[in-house]
Amino acid sequence: MGKKVAVVLSGCGVYDGSEVHEASAVMVHLSRDGAQAELYAPDIDQMHVVNHIKGEPTEEKRNVLVESARIARGNVKDLATLKVKELDALIIPGGFGVAKNLCSWAVDGKNCKVSKPVEDTIKAFHSAKKPIGLCCISPVLAAKIIPGCEVTVGHDAECEKWPYAKTAEGLKELGCKHVNKNVDEVHVDVKNKLVTTSAFMCNAPIHTIYDGVGKMVKEVLKLA
């Protein structure tokens, strides 16, 4: 039997939920490597809903679990029901939903709060010494929950290619070690069984993001 991997989503759409290409890449690579994805999301309201054409908030209200079902083709469970003992690893794709719905990084930066179901899940996998894969903005969750961990969100010098590089400074201020990596590379924190890659933190061709996510998945499965 292949490894069973919890994939935690944060909605559907880069500006207010999970980044769809990253979530899809995670599931494709898990499938190709013979692993089984079990999809979860918290049953909570989104911070807000963003019109993805205009990039502006609307007056709509949407639920994170219901929206995540769009990516999961309906097969997604409430994060509160996750049982770590039945799973081999955890992966959380990026997207602004991580920073808005799973925690408050988008508003509060390094002073953010992580939602309790997400914090409990990450702590449970870490305590069980089961690997955790995080891409794009989701390494901020580890920075808040796992003291002194090592992560990458790409490069720490802002430029056209790396528009979100200041995130690395916030991670360092939380006591993390940030390791500069290119978009098609990963960093493995062996001690904490934590695998991270930058994904869409980089302005890069989509196939390179897909490849970086694939390397993250492979390293997570090696540690499982």
TL;DR of this structure?
Helices cover 34% and strands 16% of the residues.
Please tell me about this protein's structure.
There is one protein chain. Helix 7 (166-173) links the parallel strand 8 and strand 9 (177-178). The protein has helices at residues 20-32, 64-71, 96-102, 105-108, 116-127, 139-145, 166-173, 206-223, and strands at 4-8, 36-41, 50-51, 56-57, 77-78, 89-92, 132-135, 150-151, 177-178, 187-189, 194-197. The protein is of the alpha/beta class. The strands form 3 sheets. It has a 7-stranded mixed sheet, sandwiched between helices. Helices cover 34% and strands 16% of the residues. The protein is built from 8 helices and 11 strands. Helix 1 (20-32) packs across helix 8 (206-223).
Task: Write the SSE topology.
Blueprint: E1 4-8, H1 20-32, E2 36-41, E3 50-51, E4 56-57, H2 64-71, E5 77-78, E6 89-92, H3 96-102, H4 105-108, H5 116-127, E7 132-135, H6 139-145, E8 150-151, H7 166-173, E9 177-178, E10 187-189, E11 194-197, H8 206-223
Parallel strand pairs: 1-2, 1-6, 2-5, 6-7, 7-11, 8-9
Antiparallel strand pairs: 3-4, 10-11
